[in-house]
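Feature request disguised as a bug: please show the residue count (363) next to Amino acid/amide ABC transporter membrane protein 2, HAAT family in the output. Example input:
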Amino acid sequence: MSETANTANTASTANEAAAEPAEVQAPGRDASGEPGSWGARLRDAAVERWRPIALAALLLAACYAPFQLVPFRVFQLTMVLVYAVALLGLNLLVGHAGQISLGHGAFFAVGAYAAALMLDRWDVPYLLTLPVAAAVAFVLGLGLGVPAVRLHGLYLALVTLSIAVFLVPLLKRFESVTGGSMGLTLTKPAPPAWTGLAEDQWLYFLALAVAVAAFLLARNLLRSRVGRALHAVRDNEAAAEVMGVRLPFYKTLAFAWSAMFAGAAGCVYTWVIGFVSPDSFPVTLSITLLAGIVVGGLGSLSGPLLGGLFVMFVPSWSQDINKAAPGVIFGLLIIAVMYVAPTGLAGLAGRAAGRIRRTLRRE
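Example output, currently without the count:
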């Protein structure tokens, strides 16, 4: 009896001793005594709380910018937003679904011409051309996605590139519809009198509204079951299929969604430029868009915006540096950015933010 009582007392004392550190655990330490556990969680939660505030501040700055810049700079920022919407679709296909496309500029052109024809032939209201152009591009992307399901890698890249190659001569051939090499000249959307805005400012805010809506749509899409399925397809197709992901369906859907964003961007491009022609959408446009999303950052929501800045400003800077060979300067700049930031500008910004968080955790 005495041995049993001693054993029970010993076990009780051991349990109390084991429980004591959990009760007197110091703030900022985990069960093993390592510092920074609680503090890290608190700081990460603070980062998440501050993220909406940072996005709101960025949106306010974007709304304030056109009132402080000259019309040409406002036009450049408008084009950045247009390219960002197009790159958002390309990022969905390449960065999140793992499929490659060298024909994204073709869907951009489809959206532009769909809007231009509606405005020129049937005098459709401007805002109504946006969903129609996006729907037309979506249907064409769906049609491309069906045969593209059986292709991978270089074969898929070659097929998509061929679309961008034959688009320009195809548009020139149907001169009675597309205007041929002369293109179509359109009237830009006029700002309502009650806004008090200039034309360039009104176009900027139209592009900003479309860009915000597109980014929200992409964000919600990627957080849904569709986004998780696309990531599974990108990471490992065989494993995704074993888990029940329908590869043909989601690959086709990725092409369709990507084309839809490009078509919407092409529509806004028509509003901003007021002119479309086959030569406005060469093969190099598709290649430049692909370079833009790689430089901006694949698989990141901020990548398309950074890529839009790259696509808009770097070619013009290359022209200013060397008017004889701007393409050489443009290529060298791409190589330099990829060397410094192999995961894109968004990845570089993410690493910088990570270093700041680690520094705060040490304090």
